[in-house]
Amino acid sequence: MNALVRYRVARVGIPCIWRRKCFSSGNEPAESNRVTPMLRHLIYKIKSTGPITVAEYMKEVLTNPVKGYYVHHDMLGEKGDFITSPEISQLFGELLGIWFVSEWMTSGKNTAFQLVELGPGRGTLTGDVLRVFSQLGSVLKNCDISVHLVEVSQKLSEIQALTLTEEKIPLERDAESLVYMKGVTKSGIPVSWYRDLKDVPKGYSFYLAHEFFDTLPVHKFQKTRQGWREVLVDIDPQVSDKLRFVLAPCTTPAEAFIQHDEQRDHVEVCPDAGVIIQELSQRIALTGGAALIADYGHDGTKTDTFRGFCGHQLHNVLIAPGTADLTADVDFSYLHRIAQGKVAALGPVEQRTFLKNMGIDIRLKVLLDKADEPSKKQQLLWGYDMLMNPQKMGERFNFFALLPHQRLHDASQERNAHQSKTPTSSIAGFDELVWQ
Ligand code: SAH
């Protein structure tokens, strides 16, 4: 199993036109070099309106409603293109479930809350979180919970419904509506599907986004003697059905997203991530709750991280578009800047620190003691190693949270009351979990 599993974390330098290197060796097997319907669509588009930004390329390739990679694919797991933490081990989702319950308890045990997941994949993570809610039924018994999933993929939303809902209760579908599907989970909780976060009802909510922000389109810029120039995708003049990177001849609007004192010579900016963080921050400031974001990323230090994955292998981003996942590291410093003022932003902290603080070792021990089959024990240990090992996902993935300012204020007052020397506040995961 190990050999098959590659997660989307390997970093690859991107050979590109401004470094006077050709992106593709030109020797790819015929299969990978094939003219996909998406490639045909992009060539047609570029021929009619000119080269497109990397952000537009990413958006078209991943989420075009007719041909997009996410829309009709189940790309997760061994047979797919990549595997994610919730698919690796139940430990991951369970500890996140505990995080939400702990936040709900510490912030006043509201009589109702919404669990909102952005980009829920196969629904495994929400499923594991809901199992924790059921197990802690006595704690949550008077709380009115609903689940809201933001998903653009028709294929994945069907798989989410299979994972989460009670088969005996038929799903309500309305493709034209902002809520395109509704159902009831196995534990009797109402669940609704949306294409956009803006359509999720406002109200006291816990938001969850795992490996979602890395799929959002990035603009790429290269510093030149003439100033910043945006990287665009164009048709290779030598080969009519091949794409290549070029630099824009003059400035482009997205340049406004680059910091004035930027020191790097190549940057990626993700305005869509900014829009979503703004929306989450406004909602949390207004109605309370929290957002937990986990992804691979950096603090405004990395340069070209745009890459593709197909069949658990790195894949040239411009070859056979629509057949491979495209992704770029999340710039947490940017998310921090956007949230600043409205809500408190915590992190990023490394996944292994977050999960350790949430009690992964204790949970692993409980599950190992309960497992009667040696193969189950082996699987648990393998999953733990994948999540926690610094060489695997332990250091590459990070946790980041948005919370109301008041929540941090209360937490630090509590700490001071306990005469702690550290001025930092005590928020589970970012600090050791303490049940109140
Ligand atoms: N969170 C899951 C899946 C990660 S893959 C896990 O960890 O296993 C990315 C997910 O985001 C997929 O479900 C994909 O369909 C969804 N997605 C990608 N772009 C999106 C967008 N713009 N809006 C909503 N969902 C999106």
TrEMBL record:
Catalytic activity: L-arginyl-[protein] + 2 S-adenosyl-L-methionine = N(omega),N(omega)'-dimethyl-L-arginyl-[protein] + 2 S-adenosyl-L-homocysteine + 2 H(+)
Gene Ontology biological process: methylation; mitochondrial respiratory chain complex I assembly
Protein's cellular compartments: Mitochondrion
Keywords: Methyltransferase, Mitochondrion, Transferase, Transit peptide
GO molecular function: protein-arginine omega-N symmetric methyltransferase activity
EC number, as in UniProt: 2.1.1.320
Region (Disordered): 411-430
GO cellular component, one term: mitochondrion
PANTHER family registered for this protein in UniProt: PROTEIN ARGININE METHYLTRANSFERASE NDUFAF7, MITOCHONDRIAL
Functional note: Arginine methyltransferase involved in the assembly or stability of mitochondrial NADH:ubiquinone oxidoreductase complex (complex I). Acts by mediating symmetric dimethylation of 'Arg-118' of NDUFS2 after it assembles into the complex I, stabilizing the early intermediate complex.
Subunit structure of this chain's protein: Interacts with NDUFS2.
Record's protein name: Protein arginine methyltransferase NDUFAF7
Organism (species): Phodopus roborovskii
